[in-house]
Design brief:
218 residues, alpha/beta, five-stranded parallel beta sheet, four-stranded antiparallel beta sheet
Amino acid sequence: MRVLVAEDHEELAESLVRVLHREGMAVDVALDGRAALDRTALTDYDVVVLDRDLPEVHGDDVCRALVAEPRRRTRVLMLTASGTIADRVEGLSLGADDYLPKPFAYAELVARIRALGRRAQPALPPVLEHGDLLLDPARRVVTRSGLRLALSPKEMAVLEYLLAAGGRVVSAEELLERVWDEAADPFTTTVKATVNRLRTKLGPPPVIETVPQSGYRI
């Protein structure tokens, strides 16, 4: 899942990035509304976590701009320090998909982001399967032949994306775009190295196929 955190409080933004990275999400940060609009113009995010009181361009205007985009896929989770019913109604009336007052529990934030992410994508089963391989996205659990596998957040994110592709070939560039964030170097062998580690952990018989000149598929 690719997420943009638009939050002008740097400490909170950094904290959110750490939490979401642990959940296997690719996360970019915008510290003001103008930067948020610039990033959403370049990247197709699954979810934007949007602080309502952003400088430069107010969060309300950022939300309006996102909602106005044709064929919008990105979901908006609005954050605000004000938690009154009137504020929540107003925020949702702007077109936000969900609304969370500060302070909030990180576990709830993660759950809401995942719920919105599912709405941003075509409907998928609650558990992704391929033969004896099972991945439960909500519980972050992967098993093969009934045995639980210890995967890193990035390995699990790559596996989830490939399983969700339903047999479609996924290029290394697409994996880099959807699973990593803007800090990733497009000229590194990061994707190849992660796939190789994942193959080793999945064990035989091989599950991930390399399609020459094209990418990977399950």
